[in-house]
Write a structure and sequence with these properties.
Strand content: under 5%
Number of domains: 2
Number of strands: 4
Shape: elongated
Helix content: 55-70%
Mean pLDDT: 87
Distance between the termini: 22 Å
Low-confidence stretches: 143-148
């Protein structure tokens, strides 16, 4: 119910201030949809079970008075109640009660925190005119050495900011920072033989042909008389990935710049009680679609690279090919191999990502990537199982999933 209220996150600099600032300056309706989305994992795992009340809709969006906030509307007595529920402009009663419960717990927590921080000022004194409401302060975002917004800072701060604000400038900065590196990579492959050779060897070491099969035999493509076929596969994959990554980043950057322009142009028409302007709405959907398609690239690369990576090979075996010329490779977990708990968690998260099954649909890619990064930061044993090449793939995936998460948190 409260995934963003935890000691690990709120003990970091600035996040508690962001939470106090956002919740203190804006009314509860501004956070209703974001609080509902924050409980997604709890609801799909049945840890939170909303009650069911048929033929009713609860009003949370756009409420301007305490009497309107949380009001139940009967579908038969209100002409728009069903349509509001069906189009998700308002909430089912069970969802609404969970949102109200989360907010009812959060506000006393923040008030108690205020008392602890400003313990010299009583509650009666702080409400009088001697302590007037101050203009909203400007909090600088954490940036890396190149002045671009850091991915970690953006991910950490997102749940504590006002969800109605889609910070497209930060998304633009995040994507723009990746383009020069992608361009340099392509040029280095073209012009630097040593760089080409090093990257070629790195890709080859993460090909599934390098895994021994369940009889301990090498893949036929690794035989010295057939190495030309393996080299061709490595070269094709290496070059196509380099150009595809550059094109994807360039297109995403172009789209987010267009979104930023539309947001500034149509800001007066983007209101909580109205539909988004069609041009802006279509551009948001197009950007989301491109992000989802771009994420498939790193996910597919993880499926190939993780089992074949040197630190992970002992956990997997390859099935013998049907014939020596076949390009189909089947990999499975090594039977009977005992793993430590941290290794089990790591492989479960990675497998959840690359298998793209019902579990990933329920949990959502950004949540799995966030948990994977948290595990790698907290557990040295897990981090030791991730090669530099796999870490780069996870980093590329994190950029896309963080952009997706920003869109999910955007609740105009």
């Amino acid at each position: 119910m409260w995934p963003y209220v935890n000691q690990e996150d709120l003990s970091r600099p600035k996040l508690m201030l962001l939470l106090l600032n956002a919740r203190g300056r804006h009314p509860p309706p501004a956070f209703a949809a974001a609080d509902n989305d924050a409980m997604h994992l709890g609801k799909v795992t049945k840890s939170l079970v909303p009650i069911f009340l048929n033929l009713h809709t609860m009003v949370l969006h756009g409420a301007t008075t305490p009497e309107e906030y949380g009001k139940l509307l009967d579908w038969d007595s209100h002409p728009d109640a069903f349509d509001w529920m069906h189009t998700r402009k308002q909430f089912l009663p069970g969802e609404g009660l969970l949102i109200l419960e989360a907010q009812a717990r959060l506000m006393p927590f923040l008030i108690k925190l205020r008392h602890e921080v400003l313990r010299d000022i009583s509650a009666e004194d702080i409400a009088n005119s001697a302590y007037s409401i101050q203009p909203e302060p400007f909090l600088k975002t954490d940036s890396d050495a190149s002045s671009f917004v850091s991915l970690a800072a953006m991910a950490a701060e997102a749940p504590y900011r006002l969800p109605a604000r889609l910070d497209l400038e930060r998304l633009t900065s995040l994507l723009q920072a990746q383009i020069p590196a992608a361009e340099d990579h392509v040029w280095a492959l073209r012009e630097d033989p040593a760089y080409f050779a090093d990257h070629f060897c790195e890709i080859k070491d993460h090909r599934q042909e390098m895994l021994p099969d369940n009889r301990g035999l090498p893949h036929p493509a690794t035989h010295r008389l057939r190495e030309n076929s393996l080299w061709a596969r490595v070269t094709f994959g290496m070059l196509s990935d380099a150009y595809a990554n550059l094109e994807s980043l360039t297109e995403l950057h172009r789209q987010v710049k267009n979104l930023s322009m539309l947001q500034q142009k149509l800001h007066k028409e983007i209101l909580p009680n109205k539909d988004l302007p069609k041009e802006y709405f279509v551009s948001l959907l197009r950007f989301k679609y491109f992000l989802e398609q771009t994420a498939k690239g790193p996910l597919n690369k993880l499926k190939v690279a993780v089992p074949a990576s040197p630190p992970m090979r002992k956990f997997f075996v390859r099935e013998p090919p049907v014939d020596s010329d076949s390009t189909k490779i089947f990999v499975r977990s090594r039977p009977g191999f005992k793993m430590e708990k941290v290794e089990q968690q790591l492989i479960w998260l990675l497998r959840t990502l690359w298998e793209d099954d019902y579990t990933l649909f329920l949990v959502r890619v950004p949540n799995v990537v966030d948990e994977l990064e948290r595990l790698l930061q907290a557990e040295p044993k897990a981090d030791a199982r991730i090669s530099a090449h796999v870490a780069k793939i996870i980093g590329d995936l994190a950029i896309v999933t963080q952009s997706l998460k920003q869109l999910e948190l955007y609740q105009p």
